[in-house]
Specification:
Number of helices: 9
Shape: elongated
Helix content: 10-25%
Oligomer: single chain
Distance between the termini: 70 Å
Structural class: alpha+beta
GO molecular function, one term: hydrolase activity
Keywords: Hydrolase, Magnesium
Radius of gyration: 24 Å
Organism: Streptomyces cinereoruber
Protein name: NUDIX domain-containing protein
Cofactor: Mg(2+)
Length: 367
């Protein structure tokens, strides 16, 4: 029997089944799988193993005849002692033969590595982890920005790309050596590659106590579709809410400080404000005020020298926005207040979708 049109043969050429099989085998790659797991604060589970100095996600090689998803579930059982269904992919990475840094005797041919979503684990599930007593020495949850210091470069790129794909919600990312071939806005600005804004401060849905200084006024500014405005630093990828520090021109009004700050740094305007509450800084030294409001206008991006420093303006669901910050155990209380305000403002709840850039200008009708 002959097989026509082999992939790298000229049209009309026929080869035998044996020759075709040998040709395909010569181009074979390894297959691997891993699972991305986070805790309730957005930290990533990594394993310290006894056979290499760098950390890894749970996972390993796909056995002969085994699907990548089944391999991922098997690795979770073997390495963490946890039974789980693994059915959502986050990324597929083509790892080139030279990217791994493998010794020549290994004859590493390259790899197709699948990254699956292990979900968000609560304290009970984390406590159920049982290590096998060999290979995996310990597990810990780490900040995304710590990954480049704990993993080899390709692994760190892959995990961060997979995490951005999970936040984005647009489907699995296709990677080459950990880099997306069709990067979204979170990839382009390098979100999560530097430390997230850490504000482990209690959220209080109450007025700021008399005499307590307000250091910053930030806003959850809603578009008509229920998503909110988030600003990403083009140099670091760090995320922040629009707003500003109160100044003399604001006459002690936190909303005025927010409006001024959002206009100056992001060229946006909002209306119909609702006061949410405040975060109480360390030792009760200051407050960070939070408002919710409806976006009315997005102006054109800055031009000239200011353009390089201007934040990248994106729309994300409130839940996606929260994943870009490190607000610790108090983030859930603030998120609940945001959704209460959203309802009062008559704004729908947004379905998770790809984070999108607001290049502007845009005027929101009916706001």
């Amino acid at each position: 029997m002959t097989t026509p049109s082999a992939p790298d043969e000229s049209p009309g050429t026929s080869i035998t089944d044996e020759e075709y099989g040998a040709l395909r085998a010569s181009a074979a790659l390894w297959a691997g799988t891993s699972v991305l797991i986070t805790d309730g604060y957005g930290r990533i589970l990594v394993q310290r193993v006894d056979y290499r100095p760098s950390c890894l996600l749970p996972g390993g090689a796909v056995d002969k005849g085994e699907s990548p998803a089944r391999a991922a579930a098997r690795e979770l059982r073997e390495e963490l002692g946890v039974a789980a269904v693994v059915d959502r992919g986050l990324a597929v990475d083509w790892v080139s033969a030279g990217a791994f840094g493998a010794p020549g005797v290994m004859r590493f041919p390259g790899e197709i590595l699948h990254v699956y979503d292990g979900g968000v684990w609560d304290e009970e599930r984390i406590a159920a982890i049982r290590l096998p007593g060999h290979e995996v020495e310990a597990v810990e949850f780490v900040e995304p920005a710590e990954l480049p210091g704990l993993m080899i470069p390709g692994d760190a790129r892959r995990v961060l790309s997979a995490l951005r794909a999970r936040i984005d919600g647009a489907g699995p990312a296709l990677l080459e050596d950990g880099v997306p071939i069709a990067p979204g806005v979170l990839d382009r600005v390098g979100a999560l590659r530097t430390a997230r804004s850490r504000e482990h401060f209690p959220f209080r849905p109450a007025p700021v106590p008399e005499g307590l200084p307000v250091r910053r006024s930030g806003g959850w500014l809603f578009a008509p579709d229920g998503r909110v405005l988030v600003l990403l630093d083009p140099g670091t990828g760090a995320a922040r809410l629009p707003g500003g520090a109160p100044g003399p021109v604001d006459h002690g009004d936190p909303w005025a400080a927010l409006v001024r700050g959002a206009g100056e740094e992001a060229a946006v305007a909002a209306a119909r404000p609702l006061y949410l509450g405040h975060l109480l800084g360390p030792d009760g030294a200051y407050a960070l005020v939070r408002h919710a409001a409806v976006l009315t206008r997005v102006g054109p991006p800055p031009a000239g020298p200011a353009a390089g420093r201007a934040p990248v303006r994106v729309l994300a669901t409130p839940e996606q926005a929260l994943e870009l910050f490190d607000w610790g155990p108090h983030g859930a209380a603030q998120l609940a207040a945001v959704h209460r305000a959203r309802t009062l403002l008559g704004v729908p709840r947004a379905d998770r979708r790809a984070v999108t850039e607001l290049a502007g200008p845009v005027t929101f009708q009916g706001c």
